[in-house]
Input
Amino acid sequence: MFQIDGGREFDNASLDDHFLNHDIYFRKSCPDTQAQNGVTECKYRHLIEMACAFLIEAYMPATFWVDAIHTAVSVANRLPTPNLQGKSPFEKLFQKSPDNNFLKTFGCACYPNFSTTSANKLAPRSTRCIFLGYAPITKVNTFTS
Output
């Protein structure tokens, strides 16, 4: 079962089709009733608050909100939670602790290695960029110059 309040963020045909095709019961609670909002709405609020904190701390405009949300999800999935007896969602899913050594601060300066795409040996091998988050499938980070 998937339950949300009457908000519009999950109101689309594609999601409705997904629920229908996978026999997932979809229910909307009354708007502005915290007690009925369920786990999904609480997690959604938590991710929005994390993303806002990332943007504010990095002095970045709201146009980067999608990158901030993706980064918030990556970080939240690696944090221990009391709901999983002190384990992270990553640990619960993959049965091993996540490697957090590669985590970087959202919005920090980064210098990606462009040596494989440089025109020649003397060409610049990097340029100053801004760290925006993590690629969904690989350990490669995303950035903008």
